[in-house]
Amino acid sequence: MKKVMVIAVFLMLVSLVPVLSSAEGIVSSELTGVRIAADGRGMAYFADVIGNTPPSCASGYRYQLSFDTNNAAGKAIHATLLTALAAGKSVYAKGSGTCTTYTVVENWEWGQVLD
């Protein structure tokens, strides 16, 4: 019985490793701006610093998340951001934990306009 309990506790702890080691930023803030470059890459600028645990690749850009309008997801993010800006609404957003659009800005993973 003791072995079964030890194995159960071990498996529970192992299942938590991805959660404990995740590194992605989270922000709930007003937007201060949205930028789109000529190549379609964009950034959302927030009034508040991105919290949680942003990846080390984004250590110098703590108020921005990036996205790419060259794909459908990026176009939807851009539309969501413009909607929030026009309505003066805050946005809740989560970063992906990676910096692929810009190598120094965390990528947007998902978000929503807040009431």
Mean pLDDT: 87
Please provide the count of β strands.
Answer: 6
Which structural category fits the helices and strands?
alpha+beta
Radius of gyration: 18 Å
What pattern of helices and strands is seen along the backbone? HEEEEHEE
- Note the main sheet: 6 strands, antiparallel
> How many domains, as an integer?
1
The number of helices is: 2
State the distance separating the first and last CA atoms: 52 Å
| Residue share in helix | 25-40%
Query: Approximately how much beta-strand content do the residues carry?
Result: 25-35%
Shape by Cα distribution: globular
Q: Could you describe the 3D structure shown?
A:
The chain is an alpha+beta fold and 115 residues long. It has one domain: Beta Barrel (OB fold (Dihydrolipoamide Acetyltransferase, E2P)), CATH 2.40.50. The chain has two helices and six strands; from the N terminus they run αββββαββ. It has helices at residues 2-20, 72-87, and strands at 25-36, 41-46, 51-52, 64-68, 90-95, 108-113. Strands 1, 2, 3, 4, 5 and 6 form a six-stranded antiparallel sheet that branches. A hairpin with a 4-residue loop joins β1 (25-36) and β2. The chain is globular and about 60 Å long. It starts with a helix and ends with a strand.
Give structural attributes.
2 helices; alpha+beta; single chain; 115 residues; six-stranded antiparallel beta sheet; OB fold (Dihydrolipoamide Acetyltransferase, E2P); globular
Provide a concise account of the structure shown:
This protein has 2 helices and 6 strands. With 115 residues, it is an alpha+beta fold.
